[in-house]
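Quick entry between incubations.
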Amino acid sequence: MLSRQLLFACRGVQRCCGRPISSPSSVATFRKCYVSSNAGADSPSSTTPEPVFAGRNLWRADTLTSFQEKPQAWLSTLEDKHDRKIGLLDLHPDVFRAPPRLDIVHRNIVWQQNYRNVQFTKTLTRAEMPGGGKKPWPGKRMGRSKAGSIRAPYFRGGGIAHGVRGPRTWFYMLPDALRLKGLCTSLTIKHNQDDLVIVDSFDRLPSPDAQLLHDLADHRNWGYSVLFIDVPDRACENLALACADIPSFNIMPTYGLNCYSMHKYQTLVMTHEALNYLEERILFHLHRADTLQNKFRYKDMKEKLLNEGEGEDDPVHAPFV
Amino acid sequence: MAARNFASMAIRNRLYCKSLSSQSFLRRCLSSSSESNAVSSVGKLGTSQEEPKIWEDPWRHALGPPPPPEEYTTEFEESSAEWKFVERLFPHDVIPEPPKHESYPTPSGWRPPRDPAPNLPYFIRRLRNHMLPLFLESRRDQLNLETMDYDYVELVKLKNVQGDVFACERDLRAYLESKVGHSIATHVNELQGAIRVKGVERADVERFLFEQGF
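Done. Structure below.
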């Protein structure tokens, strides 16, 4: 009886869940593990989703080491305020049990805060100030101090000696390896400190009521600030309306996930689909054939950056930056 | 008779050449070509109006109209049987698994990690390219007063050490000192799981790791 229940449970999960973890997994199976994930599972029409207790296939997880524990997370639902667990998921240890490199997380956060800084101010030196070419008074017999120009820095209204010099940028790019490690460490910290919540889907939220979301968060002991992460950048209607009334609850697509946001928000609520997508992308880059020590070259990104605002012209509204 | 024929031939030739060179001839050519174009644009039929006159193209009159150009069919058939020859030339996007060899070590000296892992208080994880996590670090040492150049020290860095890093360092030091013969300096970075060794070659540390089974 129990075995048949587990068998039916397997159907709802990824197709390749029956394969053992230690089998040699080729590149072809990599995509299959994460792409065919929620094709048939958890459609909005079904009222009670099938319990998910079968293991997820973790691509290239190291089975030899006994010093990296295999993390697990509950899969819950937002249908009502009581926390109903509908499954238990295995998480990939390389992503959710990465070594706690706080120095790398620090470098990531500092980078995020600084790389966008642009200084637009400029102060003029004595050479750039108007006037000041003529010696104002002779050096001797005046009883005044010597002066060469009325725009010297010791003059009122004179130029600035060591001032802010023109447009300046603090732009730099962290190597891919550091950014990946930072993401993995931040996810590890979030999961290890019970701040990571995995939910089946956001469109199960019954109503756009903000009070309902507040009660839900209180019941499940979420923090003051919650970050909802979903794969598409169009949010579900109910969740978007509810979060619009709560300033500390925000929604973000997976491509916007970053160390700063993960540490700013107390709780991270992720959908199952988002979890699969994140794991797939992070693992791809952790195992990609390209080097992770890449120098940022403007000419590689120039076309993409200059075409960024293409198709966003609106006859009425100013562009949003 | 022959002279008269020759004279009439010459006159005829002269007239023909003159007609060839004259403006009126050119105008007639252009008008005839435009007429022929007009005719061809209206209805593509091989009428007698389309064909050039004898004096406009005597070769055609003598040899006949040129044969029509060979017609090639533009149908094509897609075949994916040769795609595998293209696919195997693509660069890898993900590092592939190493192939299974009959015996280890391979000619390059590579061995896979032992399955199951050795029963030790530490574990050394392979890099993503299936190699051992051994690196060379060159650090600046003291100033050499004779040559007035800095001496550089080459250190071997062992990364990805999980578990008890100090136990790993003890075992490593004991093994290397017995192999190399002289004392060895080591530095342990516990937070990052790295050990730096001074006074050995990278190959010695690699031998230690392969013998342990990592």
